[in-house]
Each structure stands twice: as structure tokens, then as C-alpha cells.
Amino acid sequence: MHGSQFEVGDRVSLPPASVALPRHNSRGVRDVRIIAEECPVALVYDGTTVAVVMATPADLTDLALGFSLTEGIIHDSSEVEELTIIPGPDGIELRLWLRRDPGRRLKERRRQLVGPTGCGLCGIDSLRQAVRLLRPVRHSAGLTPQQIGEAIATLTHSQTLNHQTHATHAAGFFTPDNKSMMVREDVGRHNALDKLAGALAADGTFGFGGAVILTSRISVEMVQKTAAIGAGVIVGMSAPTALAVRTAAASGITLVGIARGSEFEIFSHPTRIINDGSPREEA
């Protein structure tokens, strides 16, 4: 959806993404450092709070839309009828009103919720749901080693907030035929990826045309969210977990970890990494 209700919300008065705070350095000298802000953000659907996350108070429209998509609350951004951002003394509420079908699905899901949860597993009521597999990614862009290096360099350069604070994660969407990269940052790695998912949806960009690039480790939730985006390649600067590798393999996703410049390791579906003009063979 490209409606104005997704654009007006972020114009409300919100806390800044970073603040200047006094500190003493190792020599006892008092000066100032720019610190990343974080605050409680509640995702409220049809009047009911589904999750509360600790997040950077920026790009909250993207967070609301992306969380809704990657957690399976909606299938398409058009299923959100209205979105309002409400700042308060204790945090920020993202109030979403859903159309009839997604609202009914969420109500059925809410009947079994066991309580609020932390990053990435909001609304999960069973072990099976925690390791859920989404529809396998069938079609996706391939990358060369050089492009992976370019993607890592571009993401590093684009971390405006992290350059100031040294305290935030970033998620970027890299397309092989485009030098620019859509990037979102947050104190939480799941939030950064959800913000990216929301930004892509609002822009009408389909995930199969590029790769998700992360500054963080690759855990199973990050793979699940990448599958929800529809991207067939996920690249992380840190290592993946074993469950993330198994989930990527089952989801048809190429997982590349420990990516530092032109050096990296491929853990699943290596054929999308094209070397010397030809794809690598499956292990």
C-alpha cells in the first residue's frame, strides 16, 4: 500500500534516534558522546497489544508494516486499513487497524498466545511455530563474490546512526544492477530487518530481485524474516547459527556468513553465488 496513512504517522513528534550525553573517558576527562536512543514500542492491532519491542524511535511506519508482514499478521500491506503512531510518556504505540480477513486471522491466533515475548518471536505459542518454515524461495537474483564485497562495503558506509553511536545494527537490500542500497538501522537486529521489510513493501520492491545484507549474526528468525521478504540470498558479517543454516537450506535460501570484504563462507544453496561466470555446484 502506498496510501498517505503510512506517510503521515512519522511526522508526529518522536524522541530523537540519538542523544548527546556527558561521559568521562579513560583519562578522567569529561566530554560528550552521541548515544543511540531506545524506547518501548508497542504494536497494537485492532485495539489489542500483540508485542512490545525495544527499538530506535525512527522509521516506525516501516517497523509497523514490516513486523506485520514478517510475523505473518498480514500477507500484503493493503490489509492494513489505518496506521497511527502515538507517542506517550512510557513509550510509543503503533496502532494498526486491519481489514476483516487479517483481523479475523489475528483474533484466532491471539486466543492461544501465552504472553508477550522478546525480539523476533512475538505471538508464538508453540515450539513448532518457533521453527516454522515459510514457502520456499524459488526465484532469486545471484551474486558474484565481487558483488558481495560491494554489498558489505555499501552497508558499512550507509550506517549513519552507527557511525555516530557505534551501537546499532543495520539491514540492507542489495540489488546487483543498482549501486544504491535501501538501509534501515535499529538498536535491535530484528527491528532493523523488520524496518527494511516495511520499507521494501511501501516502495513496492519485490524481495526476489536482490539480497538481504546484515551487520549481525544470522539466527533462525532472521532467515524466517528474509523468507517472508522473498529474498533468496542472505549475507551476514557474523556467523550463522546451526538452526539458521538448516532453515535456510529448507527454505531455498542461500546463506552467506562471516562476510568480510571479498572473503565469506557459503552454508546453503551455493549455486546463487556465481564465480568466474558460472554458478557453484550444490554440496
Please explain how this structure is put together.
With 283 residues, the protein is α+β, with helices and mostly antiparallel strands. The chain folds into two domains: 126 residues, Ubiquitin-like (UB roll) (Roll), CATH 3.10.20; 135 residues, Cytidine Deaminase, domain 2 (3-Layer(aba) Sandwich), CATH 3.40.140. The chain is built from nine helices and 14 strands. The strands form four sheets. A six-stranded mixed beta sheet has the order 8-7-9-10-11-12. Helix 2 packs across helix 7, helix 7 runs parallel beside helix 8 and helix 8 runs parallel beside helix 9. Belongs to the FdhD family. Its main location: cytoplasm.
User: Structural class, please?
Assistant: alpha+beta
Give the overall shape, derived from the CA principal axes: globular
For the largest beta-sheet, the strand count, sense and barrel status come to: 6 strands, mixed
CATH architecture of the largest domain: 3-Layer(aba) Sandwich
Question: What is the radius of gyration?
Answer: 19 Å
Tell me the number of strands. 14
Trace the largest sheet across and list its strands: 8-7-9-10-11-12
User: Which CATH class of the largest domain applies here?
Assistant: Alpha Beta
Overall tally of structural domains: 2
Number of helices: 9
* Series of H and E elements: HEEEEHEEHHHHEEHEHEHEEEE
> Residue ranges: pLDDT <50 for 5 or more in a row?
1-5, 113-121
Query: Could you tell me the strand content as a percent range?
Result: 25-35%
